[in-house]
Amino acid sequence: MRFHHQNLNGGLSSAVLADTLFPTLLNSAQPASLPDIRFATFEVGGKNRLNRLYRGNVKSEYYNLTNFDYAALGVPLGNKGGLSFGIAPFSAVGYSLETVDFMPGIGNITYKQSGDGGFNQAFLGAGIQPFKFTYVNYSRRHSGKDTPPHKGISRFLYRLSQLRLGMNGAWIFGQLIRQTDIRYPNNIQNLNHFRESIIRPKGIMGSFGIMLPWVQDSLNGRALKEKNIYTLGFCISPSTPIKLSEELYSFNYFSQPVNVNLNIKDSAEKSVRENIRYRLPLQFSTGFNFKKGYSWNAGMEFARIAMKERNTVFSAVPMEDISILAAGISWVPDKFSYGKGTYLKRTRYAAGINHTSGYVKSEGKYMQALRATAGLSLPIGIRTGTGMLHLGFQYYQNTLAPQTFFKERGICFLFGITFNSTYLEDFWFRKFRYD
User: What is the per-residue pLDDT for 276?
Assistant: First the structure.
């Protein structure tokens, strides 16, 4: 559940703090970041994907898919917390592959496989900074007294006051459609076969996050012009049971070589399996992020998805654990510049890379996936410039060393919009402001 302004810098989320001054961006994948929301924030996005599948030396036609990705709203909760809710993809599938084999005595056999759809999540998340005012209250109690605040206690309370905690809950829904079509174009004596599987999930999952920033406002006794913030973050989603239902359709048919119309030979078979038990895999991510004022953000993140112990509802191939390593950077030259000629200074520039290993293993080698992304976020807003238009380009490649397995290569165009409320534009929506 990463929004496109996060995908622009590699998909970093577990240690990324939100800016407290607009335009601010949501990080719903890490609920512990929600206490930094100071303005009602709306996010929406989609993408256009163009990819091609390979199997050995055989390659498919290009598969072009444009789809809506997510919509989310974040609002402040009191002066210590934040809330977000919305809808986002949990997993997505899109492919179309055709291969041809030759068998003596039969001729060519055409295999056409396709997949479409995916699982979605309607989520609700909340975060809190529980000890936000502990350090300030301690300092005030000792202000003007003969006994000054204890340095050790003050330092500990200051670190504690930066702690952020959060939790997400989500309802999983959607459908995954997979089709297989086997044809004998040169032999009318053999029946062709069509098979379709539709899988629908239902269930609830949750995730928990924690962030611990360390703020540096001076160096060698000299105050820094922009504060340096070093953040450690961790997010975990426990293994959760859900239920699946699967509808299977299949029938045999024949067709003339020059006639693409289907002539069903026998009755279509339909079977339905309900309440298939499946456990979503345990997954966690941990990361480190460096933030310099409101200009630079750079970080790294490691994630792990425990697929090895899952059953094979979605694949006949034994699955392996997935490891993800991501790195990214973003830069805004001067976020608060104003006036003519400052537009590009308020633009956010970002780039990132994401490498995935695992899922399936063959001949001792894991599937490898690489994604490289770059883009920018353009300030928008007629009067106040409190929104951003996110535009990005991503190249991705999924490969497995043995040539008998599939490869996937493609490009993806990302687009999204962020809006923040302001007193002038949305006074009816936002009732509180916290410094």
Answer: 87
CA angle 230, 231, 234 (to 5 degrees): 160
Residues of the chain with pLDDT under 50: 257-259, 403, 423-435
| Spatial CA neighbour of 432 closest among 39, 36, 34, 85 | 39
Cα 256–Cα 262–Cα 264 angle in degrees, nearest 5 = 110
Q: Give Cβ neighbours of residue 369 (< 8 Å, ≥ 6 apart).
A: 355, 356, 357, 396, 397, 398, 399
Distances (CA, A) of 121 to 5, 91, 113, 127: 19, 9, 26, 19
Whole-model pTM: value is 0.84
Phi, psi torsion values for 256, nearest 5 degrees: -75, 155
Return the pLDDT at 435: 41
Dihedral (C-alpha) 205, 48, 34, 422: value to the nearest 10 degrees?
A: -140
- Cα separation, 253 vs 370, in Å, equals 41
Phi, psi of 239 (to 5 degrees): -65, 125
> What whole-number distance in Å separates Cα of residue 214 and Cα of residue 205?
31
What pLDDT does residue 326 have? 96
Residue 261's pLDDT is 56
Q: Where are the domains of the chain?
A: 4-426
CATH assignment, 4-426: 2.40.160.60
The DSSP bridge partners found for residue 77 are: 81
